[in-house]
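input
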Amino acid sequence: MSDIDHYPDEALAAYTRFTFDDGRWKRPVYKRGSGPAVIVIHEMPGLHPLVVRFADRIVEAGMTVYMPSLFGEPNREPSTSYFLGVIVKTLCVRREFNAWATDRSSPIVDWLRELAKQAHRDCGGRGVGAVGMCFTGNFAMAMMTEPAVVAPVMSQPSLPVGSSKASKAAMGLSADEVACAKRRFADEGLTGMCLRFKSDPLTPDARIETFRQTFGDALEIVDLPDEAGRMALGRPHPHSVLTINLRDDDPSSLSKQTEERVIAFFKERTAG
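output
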């Protein structure tokens, strides 16, 4: 199958929508479920139906999903033209995102930290899980400066953007964010996950190696072979591990097993 999977137009109908305001920004958030909280931060081009499908499975596993909409149109199916339009607008206009910065995360991460704090107050448990995807991939690690965040997952982390050697090797995190994550991994016995397809040019080898050297055994790196994913949207390489390129039709595929592992990780780490 070369196109994206069809998912019902009413994919978000089961979610409660509210606006979260941290005093600086207001963004819509979709919430569903019961149990400890997991913040699902969508990829480019927006909160599309296959992100919702992944969130649904977290809910089915006994957790509460908080799903902010940061760019794009909620529930709109991805396409190449839609992707290009959103990324140009986000890179050039939206000041809450640092697309090219090698040594700091994006300002919107402050808003996400406040959302995590509120989600933990609402849902309890040991803490909150967070998964970022693609453009938002490294946000999950940057959120670790909020003590409520105990289970970060970076799926195909694609920032910073750039073709230079420094950009390809950079994590898009500040020194304080890196130091905090390392300290919490050591002191609290926490771990994180990082996912990608091996040949994905948006998540280069140099970046994965930087993550590996920086966080060591505390970060489980899942480096999937391309054949574990499926082709979609005319791209020559699979990219979206948990959504568009997931081999959802094959329970034995490594990408499907990775999805299940991520959900189990959230359940293990967030439980009281």
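quick obs: The chain has a mean pLDDT of 93.
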